[in-house]
């Protein structure tokens, strides 16, 4: 099993949710977060003469999506999120995939892939 976490622009959430539903992803967790990446929250990397600005990082509002999936689905999920979240501009976000060792559905006691 895998956990796929994506940090995206908030206005792309509905597009990503619909894309994941279309490929059969049944559940997700969404969290409003703030942060910055390589651009440090700025819209461009430097000034017109190429010098890097030394401004303090700006925390930008983002949405974090987490989906637990069966092994073998990560490429399909990554493609769906990437396509739906892409604006072609700086700050579109990132996708992280990590191993999920164990899952338990609290209500039924189902485990691992049966609990997804």
TrEMBL record:
Classification via InterPro entries: N-reg_PII, N-reg_PII-like_a/b, N-reg_PII/ATP_PRibTrfase_C, N-reg_PII_CS
GO biological process: regulation of nitrogen utilization
A molecular function (GO) term: enzyme regulator activity
Highest taxon of the lineage: Bacteria
One Pfam family it belongs to: P-II
GO (cellular component) term, any one: cytosol
Protein family: Belongs to the P(II) protein family.
Protein name: Nitrogen regulatory protein P-II
Organism: Micavibrio aeruginosavorus (strain ARL-13)
């Amino acid at each position: 099993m895998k956990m796929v976490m994506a940090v995206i622009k908030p206005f792309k959430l509905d597009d990503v949710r619909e894309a994941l539903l279309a490929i059969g992803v049944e559940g997700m967790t969404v969290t409003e977060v703030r942060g910055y990446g390589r651009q440090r929250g700025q819209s461009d990397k430097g000034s017109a003469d190429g010098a890097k600005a030394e401004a303090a990082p700006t925390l930008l509002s983002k949405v974090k999506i987490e989906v637990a999936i069966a092994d073998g689905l990560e490429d399909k999920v990554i493609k769906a999120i990437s396509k739906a979240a892409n604006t072609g501009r700086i700050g579109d976000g990132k996708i992280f995939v990590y191993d999920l060792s164990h899952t338990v559905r609290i209500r039924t006691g189902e485990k691992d892939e049966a609990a997804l």
